[in-house]
Amino acid sequence: MKLTKTLAFLAISSLALAACDNTGGAGGTRDSVRVVGSSTVFPFAKKVGELFAQANPGFKAPLIESTGTGGGINLFCAGVGPNTPDIANASRRMKASEFEECKANGVTEIVEIQVGLDGLVFASAKGGIELNLTPEIVYKALAAKPFGKDQTAQTWKDVDPSLPAEPILVYGPPSTSGTRDSLKELILEVGCKTDPAMAALKDSDEDQYEKLCTEVRSDGKYVDQGEQDNLIVQKISGNPKAVGVFGYSFLEENMDKVHGLPVNGAVPSYENVSTGKYAAAREMFIYVKKAHLEAIPGLKQFITEWTKNWGQGGALTKIGLIASPADKLAAMEKAATDMTVMDGTGLK
Fold it and tell me: What pTM does this model have?
């Protein structure tokens, strides 16, 4: 049934989009691009949308929603048809389980395009708390059961004697966010594996390892602020003892209110993120539904607008995007032009 509907959708022109989608409901037509996903990628996608509208006055402006990486990919993978998104923004790579879910729902041709780099930033208010962080310090401060023991740290000094005796209070992303996934992978797991026993646990009991190394405490020391990075900025700028976790672009945009905290001695800066000196650099992606390319007016042009503006000195780097290295940019431009379908290799 799904295959039949997918083939039917492919056969329909951009002027008469299918009236049914993979959910079986009445979908009607859609004459504009729909994008969902990462709150970190959102400002860049929004800028691309503005540039697209300026360059293509004959098309309607795209609808771009900040739903979080996990939520966006879930919507994207729900099926093929006008009631499903054309693109999912992601601040981490698609998971193997998500790729399989896509395939199960008839989304069998997905184009993966890495659009640039970002830094997972720890920050505090201008004139606020100063912390020299490491992945181990962050893990000890935020883990529900650090190294398998009860979490007892109430102040930063409890975690490390070199830090101030100020209460731990961190505002950060929710579990559905790609930023939260990056916090787990780039910081919490790295800190957890400083203990050889935890590193060995990954091979012997992966579920227990995941629980002990990535589960965040729930006693109010870590506060989930939803898919609103700007709200985190507001929270920490109004509380000099609070720390926030968000994407680098939000730091650059709010330098008058907040400042980045060093990790392993390196401050979050454009140069440090782009060269990998800053410990929490990560890739950002868009996932495109190839089955929608001919059916959705403006989708091809919207993707092209990304490639025109993601390089060094481009419109996106001016608002905080870290440009990928030249060889990666060339490979991604080819992927965006050829619409090369991913096969799931390397997904975790």
Answer: 0.81
